[in-house]
Design brief:
The protein is of the alpha/beta class. The longest helix has 13 residues. It has a five-stranded parallel sheet with strand order 2-3-4-1-5, with helices on both faces. Helix 9 crosses helix 10 and helix 10 crosses helix 11.
Length: 225
């Protein structure tokens, strides 16, 4: 099959990602372990901090034999049936209404490791209890779940019996200065522009992207703090 524009977009996104080494190593190490050290990684941080980019980088670095499933919660009706139907459609399964068993059975037929990612999980506020109490516990223990949210996890993820060792909270903050500078250089900025932009953006990934795009379009643009 001929290479698509999507292939080029994904390749560029992969090579332009910088930083988050600790988080990447934590996630990849857990996923590739023979016995999962924890089963849910809950990544949270303010909008534009780089949660989706971290998720994309994590999935793109995995062994091709690992099955990956990624759903955007904004595109799913926030009900049990809406979630199951969306997951069934992703897996090309016809799912009877509110029938989680058929999907869970299908997931158990996959490879030795499956990564199931839920992006923009803040849209699933009303679904969190069902996800935590019913759906996730019923999955095969070969499934690793990654949740991305703007909001911190419900306290029950941290306090319910058993979850204290199987749940990992990952809070994202601004990029370190060296990583921010590397990111800007990869966007085509010179040394002077790099320092000017990061003084304004202070390591905040979305601000770095927007400011670097503005500088590329208008090199003499004045950016003030």
């Amino acid at each position: 099959m001929a290479r698509t524009i999507l292939d080029r977009l994904e390749a560029t996104a992969k090579t332009s990602f910088v930083g988050r080494v600790q988080e990447l190593n934590l996630l990849q190490g857990a996923i590739e372990a023979s016995d999962l050290p924890f089963v849910v990684a809950y990544i949270h941080g303010i909008g534009g901090i780089g949660k989706t980019r971290l998720l994309q980088a994590t999935l793109s670095n995995l062994d091709p034999e690992i099955t990956t499933i990624k759903l955007d919660c904004r595109e799913i009706e926030p009900t049990q049936n809406g979630f199951l139907q969306a997951l069934g459609n992703y897996l090309n399964l016809k799912v009877p209404e509110n029938d989680a068993f058929s999907i869970i059975s299908h997931l158990g037929e996959f490879s030795a490791r499956t990564v199931f990612a839920l992006d923009t999980y803040e849209a699933f506020g009303l679904m969190d209890t069902w996800i935590r109490q019913e759906f996730v516990p019923s999955l095969p223990d070969s499934v690793f779940i990654i949740i991305n949210s703007r909001e911190r996890p419900n306290a029950a993820w941290l306090t319910s019996p058993g979850w204290e060792t199987l749940f990992r909270e990952i809070s994202l903050h601004e990029l370190q200065e060296d990583d921010a500078h590397e990111m800007l250089k990869l966007r085509g900025l010179n040394q002077s522009q790099v320092f000017k932009v990061n003084r304004f953006a202070r390591g905040y990934p979305l601000a770095l992207e927007l400011a670097s795009a503005a500088i590329r379009y208008q090199p003499d643009l004045e950016i003030t703090e």
